[in-house]
Design goal:
single chain, 12 helices, 86% helix, flat
Length: 333
């Protein structure tokens, strides 16, 4: 037992001595060979370099994010101001839709469409109330809807190609071209409606209209917050100077980010849109099928006063449901 205790104590002392010797060797030997100071200086220098480079990269990225956020906030403010503007005249809306017609010609076309719809409703249905409704829809509803559709389609097409035009402008400025020459390249290379709009600015400069005023006129023809921001950038640059290419590059980045986000939202909401379309069209499909296979089954719905009341109520509820679903699946970007 005593021998065992001595053996355990001796083993413990040997292990402690080995551990202490190894620790002293690990500390003393690099100092004696000069490796510790060199490795320490190298490590400190490397850490300092890495820290400075990472700090610089983070600082530059934060600056870019800040500029993009400021640009996005400015675009949102401009968009809100555009929504609060007064009602546009018919001539301005025709220009925004890209139609080369006068308001008089539009009114004449609306009158012809109203008379045609009313006559067709009177001939095929024979009800004066329905004919009056057709006259109203053909004269006021349909032409205004077509005008709004063409106007919205032209603005979406312009916005889809606007980022590419800004990139061409940025590359032209960085290569040493003046703004007018870069816009001339855009007017010749880009298609409708971006090219003709920049061509208006170039042609206006030839007769003495400054570029900033020409872009302000472009805002009247294409009332988008992105175009308005371009006008603001041009106005500030013409009066105070600054790095125009960097501001336009940030604008192009924001435009492309907004486009990507809009595409993602449309992709995510496509299932809801398909479901809403199926739900909205299902009652009409069922009515058509039942009328085809058993016409007498739904005849009281169209020939009795109770059936007419039911149709009116169902139409109101269907319209309410369609509007609610449309509000739920449409997102403003």
């Amino acid at each position: 037992m005593f021998f065992g205790d001595d053996l355990a104590g001796t083993a413990f002392v040997v292990m402690v001595a080995l551990a202490a010797g190894g620790l002293i060797f690990a500390i003393i030997f690099p100092l004696l060979s000069g490796q510790a100071s060199a490795s320490r200086v190298k490590a400190i220098a490397g850490n300092k370099r890495d820290g400075m480079s990472s700090f610089r990269a983070r600082f530059q990225e934060d600056q870019k994010d800040t500029r993009r956020k400021q640009l996005q906030d400015t675009l949102n403010e401009i968009n809100e101001k555009e929504k609060k503007k007064k009602k546009l005249s018919l001539r301005v809306r025709l220009e925004q839709a890209g139609l080369d017609v006068t308001p008089r010609a539009f009114y004449m076309a609306s009158a012809v469409a109203g008379v045609l719809f009313g006559a067709l409703a009177l001939v095929f249905i024979g009800n004066p109330i329905v004919a009056g409704l057709g006259l109203f829809v053909g004269g006021l509803g349909l032409p205004r809807w077509v005008l709004g559709y063409l106007r919205k389609r032209r603005q979406n097409k312009f916005l889809n190609d606007f980022a590419d035009a800004i990139d061409v402008l940025v590359r032209g400025l960085k290569s040493g071209l003046p703004v007018s020459e870069a816009m001339k390249i855009i007017s010749t290379e880009q298609g409708e409606p971006v090219g003709p709009e920049f061509l208006e600015v170039v042609e206006g400069q030839r007769i003495g209209i400054p570029i900033d005023q020409g872009i302000e006129r472009m805002v009247e023809r294409v009332p988008l917050p992105e175009v308005n921001f371009l006008a603001i950038v041009m106005t500030i640059q013409s009066k105070t100077g600054g790095n125009l290419s960097e501001a336009l590059a940030n604008l192009s980045k924001v435009l492309r980010d907004r486009k990507k986000m809009k595409a993602k939202v449309q992709a995510v909401s496509q299932e809801a849109k398909s479901s809403a379309a199926i739900i909205g069209s299902l009652p009409f499909i069922i009515v058509l099928l039942m009328s085809f296979f058993n016409p007498k089954y739904l005849r009281p719905l169209f020939e009795t006063q109770t059936g007419h009341m039911l149709l009116i109520g169902c139409g109101m509820w269907m319209s309410t449901g369609v509007l609610v679903m449309r509000k739920m699946i449409n997102f403003n970007m």
